[in-house]
Design a protein that fits this description.
This protein has two domains: about 90 residues; about 180 residues, Sandwich (Jelly Rolls), CATH 2.60.120. Helix content is about 25%, strand content about 25%. By secondary structure, it is of the alpha+beta class. The longest helix has 30 residues.
Length: about 290
């Protein structure tokens, strides 16, 4: 853009110079004849080109000068219009407002999501700006997680098995996905894709043979499930955002009905033999339904 501006300035200077030369030649031609002598006042009184010395040569100069003047005027006008109406280069750096295309983006709250184990162990659900896959907010799921081989597992209050996993879920009759009409169930039987981005901190996994894993799922109206393949929270997935996806109908419970999908969620779970014992938040964002 700097090269373009410099070129425009050079064109403007050249056109102004041409205009000045043109008018100078016009004045010179008017005052002097072809021999270089000033026009006599007496000769001006005589009618005809022979008296003044302004024959075809003079008329050609007048035409040339007029043409050059019009050309330079057109160039100057074009440069002025371009400079005053063009969009400044810096306008491209103006931030574009964030527009979400997610079914659940958590920009305005928890979007109706809940924790399945609430009431069975300490849990909390809120939104946060600490981490976000896109936009400014994500869903924060805070729950105690303990492996079956962790110290004191059997002595945990309530139902110990509830501590081995944490499940964040939304039901469509409570909170329908953005961009879809309200309904208790949706027909997702034609290979629909369900995706969420998740962020799992290192405090909720043990790198090694008993790593915590995460899956996304959908539930039908009878609460039968279809699960994605699980992803281990190993060194490649810890402390960073990554996407998990499910093709509806994969890894399904018996009698799962993909034409009556009632809800979706994300499940974080410890495997058998895990010694993990921690309470720490993890995060969900940008959940989409395609199909």
């Amino acid at each position: 853009m700097n090269i373009l501006n410099t070129s425009i300035r050079i064109i403007g200077m050249v056109s102004l110079l041409m205009t000045g030369i043109g008018y100078g030649v016009a004045i010179f031609s008017y005052v002097f004849d072809r021999s270089g002598n000033p026009q006599r006042s007496e000769a001006r009184a005589v009618v005809g080109p022979a008296a003044t010395g302004r024959g075809p040569w003079f008329r050609r100069w007048v035409i040339i000068i007029a043409t050059l003047s019009l050309m330079t005027l057109a160039i100057d006008s074009s440069v002025f219009v371009w400079q005053t109406t063009r969009v400044p280069h810096s306008a491209s750096a103006v931030a574009t407002p964030y527009v979400s295309h997610a079914a659940y983006d958590f920009e305005d709250g928890t979007d109706g999501w809940t924790v399945t184990e609430a009431g069975q162990k300490p849990t909390a659900l809120t939104t946060t700006t600490r981490y976000a896959a896109s936009g400014t907010h994500a869903l924060e799921v805070d729950a105690q997680l303990a492996g079956e081989a962790s110290p004191g597992f059997a002595a945990l209050p309530g139902i110990p098995n509830a501590y081995t996993h944490t499940e964040a879920v939304v039901f469509f009759d409570t909170s329908p996905p953005a961009g879809r009409p309200p309904a208790a169930t949706y027909d997702l039987a034609s290979g629909a894709q369900v995706t969420c981005s998740v962020y799992i901190p290192h405090t909720l996994t043990v790198i090694g043979p008993f790593e915590t894993f995460v899956r996304i799922f959908v539930k039908d109206s009878a609460y039968a499930n279809s699960y994605s393949t699980y992803i281990n929270i190993d060194a490649a997935h810890v402390d960073r955002w990554f996407a998990i996806s499910l093709t509806v109908g994969d890894n399904a419970d018996p009698h799962f009905n993909a034409s009556l999908v009632h809800g979706m969620g994300v499940r974080l779970e410890t495997p058998a033999g895990s010694t993990l014992a921690a309470q720490s938040p993890w995060y969900i964002d940008d959940c989409t339904i395609q199909g």
